[in-house]
Design brief:
The structure holds two protein chains of two kinds.
Chain A (H helix, E strand, L loop, with lengths): L2 E5 L3 E2 L5 E8 L8 E8 L6 E6 L5 E3 L7 E6 L4 E6 L8 E9 L4 E4 L3 E5 L2
Chain B lengths: L3 E4 L2 E4 L5 E7 L4 E2 L4 E2 L1 E6 L6 E5 L3 E2 L7 E6 L2 E6 L8 E7 L6 E2 L3 E5 L1
Parallel strand pairs in B: 2-13
Antiparallel strand pairs in B: 1-3, 3-10, 4-5, 6-7, 6-11, 7-8, 9-10, 11-12, 11-13
Classes of the chains: A mainly beta, B mainly beta.
Chain lengths: 119, 113
C-alpha cells in the first residue's frame, strides 16, 4: 500500500523559502511509470498543480510558479522535495504531495500539510 | 492554460436520488491517436485529500462504488452519482491531464437535501 507523507514548517515568513519533503513508503520513486507531484489548495479554494518530477530527474512546473519553484529527488531516502522561493501570503495553502500515473491522473495523495505565510 | 469549468457550484440532492455534475474544458482533451479523453474526477471530503474516482473520463478506479459513473467526450463531461448516499457528501473536482499545466475545475459541492 503506497503512502505519502508531507513534512516541513507550518509557518514561513514573507520573502523566505517554503521547503517541504514528501516521504514515500510502499513504492520506490526510482521506478518509472509515475510522476511525483506537488499540488496545493488555498483555504476554502480549489486545487492547483505545482509541478512534478520523474525518476530520471526531469521536471515540469506550472508556468504560474515556474520562476520560484523547484522539485528534487532523494532516491536514497525515497523522498522528493518542494522549494518555493519569495513566498507571499497568497502562497498560504495546504500542500499535497501525490503520485500521478504517467498518463496524468493522480492516484495517491498525501494527507496534506498547511503552510501559512505570515510575519 | 486549459480552463475547466464545472456546473453547478453546488447542489443538494435527496438520499437515493441522482446527482449530476458537469465539467467543460476550454479545449478538447480527446486524443484521437488512442481514442481517449484525458479527464479525471476526484472526490474530496472535509479535512481529507482528494480521492481519485474516475480516469479516462469513464473508467472507475479500483474500489470506487459503481454508483459513480463518468461520461462525455471532447470538451463536455459528466459525473453522475446514482442513488446518493450520505457518505457521498463532498466536493467533486474534474481535472484535465492532457495539457500541461494540469488544471482542475473549481469544484462542485454536493449536499443532502
Amino acid at each position: 500500500q503506497v503512502q505519502l507523507q508531507e513534512s516541513g514548517p507550518g509557518l514561513v515568513k514573507p520573502s523566505q523559502t517554503l521547503s517541504l519533503t514528501c516521504t514515500v513508503s510502499g513504492d520506490s520513486i526510482s521506478r518509472g511509470d509515475y510522476y511525483w507531484s506537488w499540488i496545493r489548495q488555498p483555504p476554502g479554494m480549489g486545487l492547483e498543480w505545482i509541478g512534478y518530477i520523474y525518476y530520471t530527474g526531469n521536471t515540469n512546473y506550472n508556468p504560474s510558479l515556474k520562476s520560484r519553484v523547484s522539485i528534487s529527488l532523494d532516491t536514497s531516502k525515497n523522498q522528493f522535495s518542494l522549494n518555493l522561493t519569495s513566498v507571499t501570503a497568497s502562497d498560504t495553502a495546504v500542500y499535497f504531495c501525490a503520485r500521478a500515473e504517467d498518463w496524468g491522473w493522480i492516484d495517491r495523495w498525501g494527507q496534506g500539510t498547511l503552510v501559512s505565510v505570515s510575519s | 492554460d486549459i480552463v475547466m469549468t464545472q456546473s453547478p457550484d453546488s447542489l443538494a440532492v435527496s438520499l437515493g436520488e441522482r446527482a449530476t455534475i458537469h465539467c467543460k474544458s476550454s479545449q478538447t482533451v480527446f486524443y484521437s491517436s488512442n481514442n481517449m479523453n484525458y479527464l479525471a474526477w476526484y472526490q474530496q471530503k472535509p479535512g481529507q485529500p482528494p480521492r481519485l474516482l474516475i480516469y479516462w473520463a469513464s473508467t472507475r478506479e479500483s474500489g470506487v462504488p459503481d454508483r459513480f459513473s463518468g461520461s462525455g467526450s471532447g470538451t463536455d463531461f459528466t459525473l453522475s452519482i446514482n442513488s446518493l448516499q450520505a457518505e457521498d457528501v463532498a466536493v467533486y473536482y474534474c481535472q484535465q491531464h492532457y495539457y500541461l499545466p494540469w488544471t482542475f475545475g473549481q469544484g462542485t459541492k454536493v449536499e443532502i437535501k
